[in-house]
């Protein structure tokens, strides 16, 4: 933690009420950040805030709907008033949606893209504008997926939305580099979380995971090193990267 010192930095983590987002918020708090934990489920955020406080950290629960631009702006105002403007942003909020392309409904597809793609755009843009106005260096970390880098059956809208995140990351990085704001993305493989638990415990899920060279799913703590690297100045020359962390799934043999 000392090597990746983030003492007194202000961070925002969306989708922080459960799963990987919850874990990432705790990691940043342990590293010294004052963390804005944002999600729709306020009761879950309050529980997380208490857990972070018990560990000696500082967090600010923010009830936020990332599909509502006004809600994002209001949440940023709340965080700024309580702790300062965030210079570390983890764009983690997301929804999973199974289903083949031919069966996907417009309503479901619109919802997936609203959360997984448009919300990433809005959160990144609104936070970056504040960093630029304050002449502050920053790091934006988007959460893509290995399904945004490679194809798979039955997850058309989800995979397409995560592919958009991967490409947006590079575009944001290009335009924000002159402002000393770095933008990178993590592309996780299959990690155990509230969103993936049912699939990973199913027979289909177990067979799918076995296809990866490491033949297992990831645990949240296996993301810690990458999170701290990208959030800290130890990665000060890294921007526009999309980094898979997947147990070798993308290099699996045909």
Order of strands, main sheet, comes to 3-2-1-4-5-6-7
User: SSE order, as H and E?
Assistant: EHEHEHEHEHEHHHE
Query: How many DSSP E strands?
Result: 7
How helix-rich are the residues, as a percent range? 40-55%
How would the global form be characterised?
A: globular
Largest sheet: 7 strands, parallel
Number of helices: 8
Q: How many distinct folded domains?
A: 1
Which residues form runs of ≥5 with pLDDT under 50? Answer: none
Report mean pLDDT, rounded to a whole number: 94
Cα distance, first to last residue? 39 Å
Which structural class is indicated by helix and strand composition?
Answer: alpha/beta
The CATH topology: Rossmann fold
CATH architecture descriptor: 3-Layer(aba) Sandwich
CATH homologous superfamily?
NAD(P)-binding Rossmann-like Domain
Beta-strand residue percentage: 15-25%
Instruction: Please write the CATH class name.
Output: Alpha Beta
Radius of gyration: 17 Å
Written overview of the protein:
With about 250 residues, the chain is an alpha/beta fold. The protein has a single domain, classed as Rossmann fold (3-Layer(aba) Sandwich). It is about 45% helix and about 15% strand. It contains eight helices and seven strands. A seven-stranded parallel β-sheet has the order 3-2-1-4-5-6-7, with helices on both faces. It is globular. The N and C termini lie far apart (about 40 Å).
Keywords:
7-stranded parallel sheet; Rossmann fold; 8 helices; alpha/beta; 254 residues
In short:
Helix content is 43%, strand content 15%. The chain has 254 residues and is of the alpha/beta class. The chain has a seven-stranded parallel β-sheet with strand order 3-2-1-4-5-6-7, sandwiched between helices.
